[in-house]
Each structure stands twice: as C-alpha cells, then as structure tokens.
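INFO  loader      accepted 1 record
INFO  loader      residues=263
INFO  predictor   begin
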Amino acid sequence: MTPDSYPFRPAMRTALSVNLNKVALVRNTRHIGIPSVLRAAEMCLHAGATGITVHPRPDARHICAQDVHALSQFMRDWPGCEFNIEGNPHQNLMGLVRELRPQQCTFVPDTESQFTSDHGWRFPQDAQGLRPLIEEAKALGVRVSLFMDPLPEAMPVVKALGADRVELYTETYASAWGTVRQFDVLQQFAQAAQAALDVGLGINAGHDLSRANLADFLRAVPGVQEVSIGHALIADALELGYSAAVKSYLQCIEAAHAMKVNA
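INFO  predictor   done
INFO  writer      dumping tokens
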C-alpha cells in the first residue's frame, strides 16, 4: 500500500495550539525581556491559531511561572481560544492548574532533568498515581489530556482513569516521515486514534510535527481535534514571521481536510 491508499477518514478541522516554550528560551538568554512571550501569543492568535500551549519545567529553562500567570490573564481576552498547560503533575504542574484553571492541562511524564518529552505514560505502573490528579483537575473544570505513545491497548485504561483526551506523541512519526517506514508508522497512529475514539476519548497530537509532515499525519489519523506545535513553528517564524508561519500551518490543516473530503 502507498500513502495514496490511506483509508478515508471523516472530515473535520483540527485546532492549532502554538507552544511558546522556544520563544521564552531565546528571551532567557538575555535579561531585557525580548522576545516577548505575550506578543508572540497575540500575533499567533491574530493569525488564526486557536490555542496557546506552554510547558513550564521545574528548572524554568524557558517558560516560567510568571509567564504562565501572564498568559492566563492574557487569554481571558480571547474567549474563543484555549490555554493548555503541559507538565508532570507530580512536579510543578498541579499548583498552576489549581490556581489558574486553564481550559486544558496535559499530563506529561517528564523527569526534572529531561531534555524534552520522549515517551508517554506507562500502564499499569503509572495508573495509581495519575487517577487522583485527573479527578482533581476535572473537579476544577479543567480538561485532562494524557501524553501517550500510539498504543491501542492503552486507550481503555486512559478512559477508565477518567482522562478526557490523549495527546499522541508523534516523534516516531516525524522520524519515519519521508522514509519507507512512513505508512506503517502512520497505521500505528491511526489504530491508536481509532481505539481512543472507540472508548470516547478526544485526540490531540504533538512533538516534531512540521509544515512538511503535518498534512500527511492529519489525513491518515482519524479524529485529531488539536495539534500542539512549538519547535518547528517557532523556527519557521524566525524566517517567515509569526503570522505567516501560523497561516502556513493552518493551510496544512486545510489541505488535510480537503484530502479527506475528496477521498
């Protein structure tokens, strides 16, 4: 089979949430407040993004608690857009969730010294520690998404724990894109997404998605409600500007939607 033979997926549009960590990383190399995380958020939302994502790590190497508070306040002026705070709920995430109550929090199993997110939650070993934190966040009115590898068998466990969505960790797809492995890896993601849909979970996706590989992913994987993109989009923004970069990703989303409609 070839990529042209991907099965038809129901047409839907996918929301774009821009991760601003790399903007803060550049800012933190000096102490003069530029580039501005708030200005980046404003320009991305004006260009058509429908969400802002941050992942404040305990060492504050990029996004810090002050940024999260400022963005939470800023997002109140954008009622149609969502604020998503990512992080390990066993570290610094839950204090921010309790105080700020974002529309969504994404639980990610990072260690404190981890360079970047590189795997999803493991079951059954992580289940007991996650359950009360999921319940607490939902009681606060916050949607909960769990960062997960594309494992169909894990989706019923995620649902049983009470999470609302999964965020599929897409680095393995990004690494396979453009190689002979692309189709097979995409099928793994499609099967995991279908398993999530079958038990009533929503689907997000992120990590190393880019303008090059995004449309192929959305075309093949059913039900993706949101993609969270940071590194590639901010890198593109260095060359194109925030507005043009965001619009180019929205064009990728529209292209994937058109492929589904016309399949």
